[in-house]
Amino acid sequence: MKSTLVIGYDVERIPGRVPGEKWVGRPVPEDTTTRFLKQIVDIHRAVNVPATIFMVGANIEAHRRELEACLASGLFEIAQHTHEHYPLKSVVEETGSRVFLKGLAFAFFFDAAFIYVNRVAPPEIRGSAQALYTTVTLGLGLFVGTRITGAVMDRFRCASGFTWRTIFLVPCFLLAVCALAFIFFFNL
After folding, report:
1. What's the domain range around 103?
2. Which among 35, 76, 161, 162 could disulfide-bond with 70, CB atoms 3.0 to 4.6 Å apart, if both were Cys?
3. For the whole prediction, is pTM greater than 0.85?
4. Closest to 42 (Cα-Cα) out of 76, 80, 10
């Protein structure tokens, strides 16, 4: 059985965007993205494994030199998804020093989809294919998802608030249906 190692990095930190930003209790250095991009080239050269780097446009503009080095290595593809989508993926947002918890499922969904679009789209239309995918998911998808969420919330409202367990079972059920459809109908 032949397998493929798929690696994608979602590099989104925009310095100064989140005051007091911390990861595992330590402040995040302002040059985190620069250091990551410089080190990742050496790591991938050593193991000779290609990867895709996903970045928001604001980071692409700020890190052109480092990204050119990634491209020159021949091991990387660069994919842009929106210019800056702060705080699109936030699950928790607190005031003051602001704490953001990112949705891992969201990141995996987008990264895997962008890798797939890069794989199946001819090189001359890859940018347009990624733009179409982004428009459908972040435009139409968010609109429809918001409407469905509102209907689900209204349906499971009770006198004391909401029946959260039932509300969260709805996306679990939808995920199971989508996973089964993916397994049976999607061919790579």
Report:
1. 1-120
2. 76
3. no
4. 76
